[in-house]
Every structure is written in structure tokens, then in C-alpha cells.
Amino acid sequence: MADKQLILVVEGTAALGPYWVTLVTEYIEKIIRCFSGNELSGQKLSGATPELALVVFNTHGPYSAFLVQRTGWTKDIEVFLWWLSRIPFSGGGFGDAAIAEGLSEALAMFPVPANASQSLQNLDVQKHCILVAASNPYPLATPVVSLSIPNIDQSENAETKSETCLADAEAVAKSFSQCSVSLSVICPRQLPKLKALYIAGKRNPRAADPAVDNVKNPHFTVLLSENFMEARSALSRPVMGNLTTNQGLVKLDTASAAVLGTTTISS
């Protein structure tokens, strides 16, 4: 297991498609390259290569080919960027998206503390998640993966169990701080409900949000966790991008998902 992990949770509907190249070029690729290069303040630091993974979610209903899909982990930046360039944005776009399912799928992929006495402050700077969406979350509670974390009174060897429960997106977002995973949000629109998810996922809801230079796209929402130092550093200096969009070459498996479809995006 890598010391540092990042999962990108992306809305796969047509609502996000028109903004995707801009989002990747101006924000996502810069963050990924900085995070994978262990670069802070322009200096390359020693350490193991971080792992990257992708979760794509769609909308509820018969017009979506899938609900949630995910890749495995990779340490290869170019492979990860290739995955991003092959997301087939389609369907949905007219209603609320399955954000709760996407976030819970990502959360289940992260290792969680073996017990509550483990240092949470150390873990939350190691595991990061970025939600990239252009739609509001589905308002009703739906079946999602629920992680049962041992409390401090339990044995050091107590196991963390994965179960299913009913929850909405905000309830899932609150679980991120409990699992020591930072949650950031990037959206090409101003959606208060997505900002509410970001606030719900913060360790300290009253903590000031880090300032982000967003002059090029003032209508975008860019909310970076105060614990995601690499992301904050990445957006302060230019990085050359090489994303090539060709969504017709490779498509995700469009088999219907029941509650949480987890089809792997092959490389």
C-alpha cells in the first residue's frame, strides 16, 4: 500500500462533458502531477510514488447505462490521464446525480484506521478525494457502502467492516473526516449543495477555506481541503498539459449496475 493515495470521483453525465478539458487542463492535471511528484514549493521531495484511482458515477433511472464504475489503483500518471481522457460523458444531465454512491464507493477503496486510537492527524494528509461534478446530489437517501470503524474501546485487532445502509450525499461526506480522508470539490458551476458537501467533509467546519487563484474561471467552484497541501500548491504555478480527448475509442462497460456497480475501467 502506498503512503499517499488520491481518488478522483467524476460525474459521467453529459452535464460535465463540455467543461472536462478545461477542468483537466486548468486544475486536475496540475494537482495530479504535483501530488505524484511529491512537489511542494517547487522542490521534489523523497518518498514512495502515490497511487491514483478513478470513480465515475452517473444518475438514477433508465436513461443511465451504469450507476457507479471504478478503476483499480495505478502509480502511472500517464495511464491515469489516459483513463480521464476516455470517460464517455453521456446520459443524465437533466437532474440530480448519484454523488452519494460515487463518494461511498471511493471511501470504501481507501484503507481505514485499524482502531480509533490510531493517529488521525497523520492519516488525513495521506488520503485524498476530489469530487468533480456539475449537478446537484440526488436528494433522497439511497443504498451506499457504509464503513463501520472500531471505536477506541474496542480491541486493537478489531476489524473494520463494510456494510450497506441508506444515506444521502451529505451523510456520506461526513464520513470522510471520520475515515481520515480529505474531501475537495471542483465544479464548473456555482452549486450551494456541492459546497455543503465540502463543508460536511471538513474535519473542522469552522476552519477558513484556503484561497485559490481562480481568475480564469470565476464562475467555477474550487474548494480544496486545508489538508491537501499538494493541491493548493499545484494551482499556484503553471504546468504543461497533454490531455488528448478521444471519447470514441474506449468506452466504459455499460452493463447496468444494480445498487453499486463497480466495473473496472480497463487500461
TrEMBL record:
Residues 4-226 form the Mediator of RNA polymerase II transcription subunit 25 von Willebrand factor type A domain. InterPro entries: Mediator_Med25_VWA, vWFA_dom_sf. It holds the Pfam family Med25_VWA. GO terms for biological process: positive regulation of transcription by RNA polymerase II. GO terms for cellular component: mediator complex; transcription regulator complex. Belongs to the Mediator complex subunit 25 family. This is Mediator of RNA polymerase II transcription subunit 25. The lineage of its organism: Eukaryota, Viridiplantae, Streptophyta, Embryophyta, Tracheophyta.
